[in-house]
Amino acid sequence: MRLPIPALALAIALVPPVQAQPIPAGSFQDLDALDRQVADATGGRAEPIDRRLRLKACTQPISITADGYAPSVRCGVDGWRIALRVSQAAQINAPLAIRRGDEVTVTIEGQGFDITGSGIALDDGREGGTVRVKTSTTGTPVTVRVTGPGTASLKG
């Protein structure tokens, strides 16, 4: 049945508005407290967490991974994980971990496998940044994330 537009507008106007339910305190993770924990764990390298996120309050201790190429925060019990951005100031002030021409150990990580190979860096790079590496197997440059001095990773 098709209603004429005025009748449709009247029908919509008669529908009672839905009342917004208040959000119970403590149902979302306190992002300010989480930022403080991240700053302590990463030495201030990570940027603040995006305030638009509404993460379920974690009922267990939070896991913060500060090593490797990018810091991350995880609440395994409640099923959320966020990757954090490394601040540009931290990247600029960090010493070079890879220099152009260095031999680089590259680890390719995927679900259920890790492959390690080597290559030559085509760029300078700091930990957390990216560099191009010419691999010994294909000779084609690959962009990888610097994980430490002379090491880089590519996640598949």
Give a verbal description of the structure.
By secondary structure, the chain is of the alpha+beta class. The protein has two domains: 25-90, no CATH class; 94-155, Roll (SH3 type barrels), CATH 2.30.30. It has helices at 5-14, 31-42, 88-93, and strands spanning 63-65, 72-75, 80-83, 96-98, 103-110, 113-121, 125-126, 130-135, 141-148, 151-155. Strands 5-6-8-9-10 form a five-stranded mixed barrel. A three-stranded antiparallel beta sheet has the order 1-2-3, with helices on one face. A hairpin with a 5-residue loop joins strand 8 (130-135) and strand 9. It starts with a helix and ends with a strand.
Note the topology.
Layout: H1 5-14, H2 31-42, E1 63-65, E2 72-75, E3 80-83, H3 88-93, E4 96-98, E5 103-110, E6 113-121, E7 125-126, E8 130-135, E9 141-148, E10 151-155
Parallel strand pairs: 5-10
Antiparallel strand pairs: 1-2, 2-3, 4-7, 5-6, 6-8, 8-9, 9-10
Descriptive labels:
2 domains; elongated; SH3 type barrels; five-stranded mixed barrel; 156 residues; alpha+beta; three-stranded antiparallel sheet
Structure described in brief:
The chain has 156 residues and is an alpha+beta fold. The chain is built from three helices and ten strands.
- The helix/strand class is alpha+beta
Helix content: 10-25%
Total helices: the number is 3
Percent of sequence in beta strands:
25-35%
Overall, the morphology is elongated
Overall strand count: 10
Q: Segments where pLDDT lies below 50 for 5+ residues?
A: 7-23
The number of domains is 2
Strand order of the largest sheet: 5-6-8-9-10
> Strand count, sense and closure of the main sheet?
5 strands, mixed, barrel
Summarize the helix and strand pattern as letters.
HHEEEHEEEEEEE
Query: What is the C-alpha radius of gyration, as a whole number of Å?
Result: 24 Å
Measure the end-to-end span: 53 Å
- Mean of all residue-level pLDDT scores: 76
